[in-house]
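Researcher: Sequence recovery benchmark, item below. Answer with residues only.
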């Protein structure tokens, strides 16, 4: 049984075995839930072709389904960052244990058509994060054809750059930097990392169509938004209106590059976690590269 960290308090389900401990509270699961979970993945066209692989991941405890008390639904981050509108199914990849935890409300009626598809998308989404974390050397090379046009579109939108003036090599350097320095970093973030990121992005000023003072203000907002997000999630939500144009630019890039519409989450993690781009992409597109990556886990 793994121990994770959260500040939420749960009522404990009865008659199941403990599978994960969140602070002082225990979440429960068991073979019956595992079978229902696998059955749901089998029913969805998004996962039925590789459901046997997911079944093996559950057997190997790489994916851990567990029941979740509804009190957890008030947790702010889940409410905002859940990949879709279904709030009684949640999940996350936890790098310290290198496992995906799928949290399900203890309501036996959740395994319907809508829930099956959402559960399939969520499982694939979180397994993308797992692949990125466990296969760091392969992640960018596997998905550079998706990541480069996304970040290129986003950066050109934010800093008013003609897309032909921003090279793919320059974009890939930025992607590699944030993946290595933020997403793959295990220690606490510090200001020196943000300063380094600032300096890298500041190089874009020479190809921007913005006036110098305008570019500097946007770049400052860009770095300040990341710092606020990393430092205090509540302050981030309280100040989000100030940075709305940056978040809108991320959403615009999803629509422009992947034709992903009707985003149901606040886009912010993309600024420092490239795997989030591919995870969101996987919810909309049945790309063989996604399933190939998951099979490598």
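Model:
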């Amino acid at each position: 049984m793994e121990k994770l960290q959260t500040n939420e308090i749960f009522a404990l389900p009865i008659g199941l075995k403990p599978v994960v401990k969140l602070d002082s509270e225990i979440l429960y699961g068991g073979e019956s839930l595992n079978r229902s979970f696998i059955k749901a993945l089998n029913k969805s066209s998004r996962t039925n072709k590789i459901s046997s692989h997911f079944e093996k991941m559950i057997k190997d405890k790489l994916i851990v389904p567990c029941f979740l008390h509804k009190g957890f639904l008030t947790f702010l981050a889940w409410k905002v960052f859940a990949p879709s509108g279904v709030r009684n199914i949640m999940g996350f990849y936890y790098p310290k244990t290198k496992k995906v935890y799928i949290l399900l409300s203890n309501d036996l009626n959740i395994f319907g058509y809508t829930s099956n598809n959402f559960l399939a998308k969520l499982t694939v989404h979180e397994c993308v994060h797992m692949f990125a974390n466990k296969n760091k050397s392969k992640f960018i090379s596997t998905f550079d054809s998706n990541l480069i046009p996304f970040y290129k579109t986003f950066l050109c939108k934010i800093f008013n750059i003609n897309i032909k003036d921003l090279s793919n090599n320059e974009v890939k350097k930025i992607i590699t930097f944030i993946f290595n320095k933020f997403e793959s970093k295990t220690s606490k973030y510090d200001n020196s990392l943000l300063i380094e990121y600032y300096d890298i992005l500041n190089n874009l000023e020479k190809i921007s169509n913005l006036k110098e003072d305008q570019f500097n203000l946007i770049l400052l907002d860009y770095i300040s938004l990341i710092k606020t997000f990393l430092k205090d999630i509540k302050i981030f939500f309280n100040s989000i209106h100030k940075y709305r144009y940056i978040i809108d630019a991320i959403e615009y890039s999803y629509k422009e590059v992947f034709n992903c519409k009707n985003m149901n989450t606040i886009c912010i993690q993309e600024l420092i976690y490239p795997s989030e781009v591919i995870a969101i992409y996987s919810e909309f597109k049945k790309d063989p590269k996604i399933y190939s990556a998951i099979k490598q886990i």
